[in-house]
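Example 3.2
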Amino acid sequence: MTDNRTDDFSSQQDGYSSAGGGFGGGSGGRGPNRLVDEFAKLLTDAAGMAQGVRREAETAFRSQAERIVHTMDLVNREDFDAVKAMAAQALDENAELRKRIEALEAKAGDTATD
């Protein structure tokens, strides 16, 4: 004689694990796989949130830095390079003029002694 309660429990247990309702390794994304999937989803969401926070912090930092730079009396790179080129040209012209003056002074000195 069979005990129906034992058979019912066995069929329920088999149905439970094969339906994937517990940790019996069944299909359907349940059990340990479901736990891993949920954990992976949590990590993915956390990584996305961290990237959003990073972008937000970068934007806030950049706008704050731009505001500080605008309050200071700084020149932009193009203006600096233009003035630098003008200064180099002026130095070259001064060197040429110095040579011409020295040559004229030497010539004037030679004519004064003759």
